[in-house]
Amino acid sequence: MRIAVTGSTGLIGTALVRSLRSDGHEVVRLVRRPARAGDEVEWDPHRQYVDVAGLAGCEGVVHLAAAGVGERRWNDAYRKEIRDSRVLGTAAIAEAVAALEVPPRVLVSGSAVGYYGDTGDRTVDESAPPGSGFLPNLCVEWEEAAAPAQEAGVRTAFARTGLVVARKGGAWGRMFPIFKAGIGGRLGNGRQYWSFISLHDEVAALRHILDTESLSGPVNCTAPDPVTNREVTAAMARALHRPAVFAVPEVALRIVLGELSKDVLSSQRAVPRKLLESGFSFAFPGVDEAIGAALR
Q1: Can you tell me the distance from the alpha carbon of 94 to that of 66, in angstroms, rounded to the nearest whole number?
Q2: pTM score
């Protein structure tokens, strides 16, 4: 199968491309510069430009490109960059897909469990409404931007991904050196739920969505049993054989992270109902297993 991927140099994209190619699939990588290799297609999300001809013959498109939410402290300019990278980028891909004479069978577009906002200890699946605030509103716009592909009859799924457990890259990757140094600890009161997924299972879930005709609309890409930040702290300490006695108070997070601290301290207890109902099996369903897989 010929599959196009945006965000192919990111944490998830790199692993997905490697997995697809190892199984003999042809991967076309969308790059934000003139194409220099036979497997590259130029695009520019800010100009909403895609070299549509380069997508010809693709049976699937996986759109993962987006600016990192936690890369830097938020201000008006960076909030705009976070939004534009998702909304304009998704619109560009969806319009390119819709413009093809023979569109792909499926578009898997990135999204996030941030869609649900702060759910406290309430469990939510894909049927739950959006929360309120910057990230939930952003996720709504992000998913709505794929409308041109849906209107063209392309099966469109939104991979609402949780925190990806990986040793390098992403938010979880930043925690490993902190805990390894013995200075890790819970954030705030530690009672907030984290919906996590191992990198291995995230890639497997994306491939499952590509291959499963019954999956469309939102699909939670999270492990079956979300855990609290306090439980994550204990699991990281066990895995790295280090104490985790420190705690970062809420006031310190607000000083360091600004507005982003609200989302670090918010609770999302999302479960993957649609994945499980479609027959997906997690290789690393528990947090200890996911951390162990990352360390290996």
Answers
A1: 15
A2: 0.95
